[in-house]
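Ligand-bound model needed. beta-L-fucopyranose.
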Amino acid sequence: MWRSILGKAALAAALACGVSPLVCAQNFPDIRPTAQQTAWQDLEFGVIIHFGTNTFLNREWGDGTASPSVFNPKQFDPDQWMEAIKASGARYVVMVAKHHDGFCLWPTEQTNYSVKSSPWKDGKGDVVGEVAAAARRHGLKFGVYLSPWDRHEPKYKDSAAYDEYYNAELTELATRYGDLVEFWLDGAGSGGHVYNFPKIIETLRTYQPNTIVFADVGLFEYGDARWVGNEAGKIDYENWNVIDRHGYLRWRPVEADTPLHKLHWFWHPNDTASLKSVSELVDIYENTVGRGGQWMLGVAPDDRGLLPDADVARLKELGAAIRARYSDNLLRGHLFQDANTEAALDGDEATFWSAPAGAASSVMEVRMPRPITFNSAMMMEWLNDGQAVQRYRIEAWVGGAWKTVDSGEAIGHKKIDHFAPVTAERVRLHILSSVGTARIREFQLFRLP
Ligand code: FUL
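Prediction:
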């Protein structure tokens, strides 16, 4: 039955193109996100957690020779981690279940090189399971990173045997810990190693059909989300969600990963100096989430199994700083516009303003009862029908004429712009060009210090 329905749909598509489906041209505006991708993009901000034998040995990349006996966090408390992560404003966590050193943080049946062989909880503990449960207790979604590169496992030398090993580990993670919001796939260190990634993704999709696969450029074929190309926490290009993937277009939103401590993913002793400042972190937020991307912040518990006090304080300060900057939307409360415009001012991301159907340029104007002074804007596009806005200006009615106060390319999921302060009682978002109908979920203005 399904086969015949799909067959008819494919035939109809081929006839509509006038050619075989394989050579049917794709247009950028026709590419849409999946429901899983828009739900994931709405999360905006996640945290990746690095913890393992490296934590006890002052290392970033373990060589796979560390004895499991070093792993013994005496005050292990993932609820303490989650409280701080939640306070930062993050909405999900990705646990590094196995890093490049091959040490598994769950009691896998595939190797003894795991928590099972450690003194921690007499070898009966499960870091992945406890972290997943703590995350959910705090209303955070959960995902994992399982490093393909494995510097301990002897089978790594034999690609086919290692594929089987990796698949078996993956099956355990994909079946034991509930829904995985994101699966981190990273090619670091793999050199010339060949993995059977189609098989790996098949396994993952069997048990986790809704997970978002994050993959760097080395694993270009497999990702639902792509790597930003740096670990500095910035998107330094106009951010388009649709990119070319070896000759065909695909929706692949960008994720930017960067650690809380400069250049350190794992905890290191006496390392408070590398902790990023609140203003650096706010800059990172604005240069990632504020440029339409996902922010993945690295946090690292220490050798007690706790997040260091300074890190906890910093995560709380970060959350408070972002809330303070973006809670006082000057346009909110001016809900006496037409219903279409109000949908972009109401703070409700589920409603949106629509340009006239098919219009390539359009204007959304907001009138206030008295002048406001603003120097920042936050805009969000409704992306379900594709990314539409190509060029826009924010204009203010000053001295009897429209004055451009800001201009840019690409809005996407979210765009935060800063500009010189301006005072006006009429403001408009002028969409100079869009592919298809522009739809704006939010248009907010702020006066930032
Ligand atoms: C990189 C790894 O090599 C680092 O150690 C870290 O895990 C980072 C998140 O991804 O590629």
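The CA atoms of residues 17 and 249 lie 16 Å apart.
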